[in-house]
Amino acid sequence: MKIIVAVDKNWGIGCDNKLLVSIPDDMKFFRETTTGNVVVMGRKTLESFPGKRPLKNRTNIVLTRDEGYQCDGAIVVHSKQQLMDVLKDYNSDDVYVIGGESIYNMLLDECDTAHVTKIDYAYKADVHFANLDENPDWEVAEDSEEQTYFDLEYRFYKYIKRNKQ
Fold first, then answer.
1. What is the CATH number of the domain that holds 76?
2. Which of 1, 81, 136, 142 could be bridged to 158 by S-S, CB 3.0 to 4.6 A?
3. Could you give the number of structural domains in the chain?
């Protein structure tokens, strides 16, 4: 399984159930990376999408504690165990965890790759992603040249989980 996330310089990922910033090249990278694959998210992440609808051309899996929650076009599960059972039907290389904070935290140890867009700016954030730079289990495998969007600077990073001996 893989993670895909955009973070600010304090590893913030959102505020008031919205992304901190929308950068067209980051959105394009997200779209190109996840299209045709499986995306795993929490209910709040799904409800942050336009029309509260699942993402097109992807298998959408929503993890929520709300036993009555339903969503046309998405597989809804209510526990990590249910999620893992459903994911057995898919190649783990095709599964992307896309948020939010509690889903990232729950599944970080299950993932082996993290695509992180790091934005060199500190936003007001009420949800955060784990700082992989401070986590000895993870290392940077690739990073891009510095990119700019108006006055924002950002880079694309690919982290991989270190082999545990």
1. 3.40.430.10
2. 142
3. 1
